[in-house]
Specification:
Length: 105
């Protein structure tokens, strides 16, 4: 039963992420979306509380420990385009694991 619940949760999560990805205004001809747009939308539309470390990992940059680093990181993320599978991998590796660690405390 627990495995079924995880599978249902995974499917629903994947559906939500696909909707976010597929409605991106920055999709390029290769079907990739701008990382910064995806992260902004993810943060804007979810109930997630994301730590600076998780944000850094999601944006694939060094520590986001002050405003200038965050700005630089977001500018760099504007140059990065990711496929849906890369976006899912980043999300699950960084955000979901952080949520599960919080839940298990």
């Amino acid at each position: 039963l627990a495995a079924d619940m995880d599978t249902d949760r995974d499917r629903e999560e994947t559906r939500k992420l696909y909707k976010l990805f597929s409605t991106s205004l920055s999709l390029n001809e290769d079907g990739e979306a701008q990382l910064s747009e995806l992260v902004n939308e993810l943060l804007r539309t979810s109930e997630l509380m994301v730590t600076d470390d998780q944000l850094s990992d999601l944006l694939q940059c060094n520590k986001v420990d002050d405003e200038s680093n965050l700005s630089r990181c977001m500018i760099d993320a504007e140059e990065k385009f990711v496929s849906f599978s890369e976006f899912i991998t980043l999300y699950r590796k960084n955000i979901r694991l952080g949520k599960e660690e919080e839940y298990n405390k």
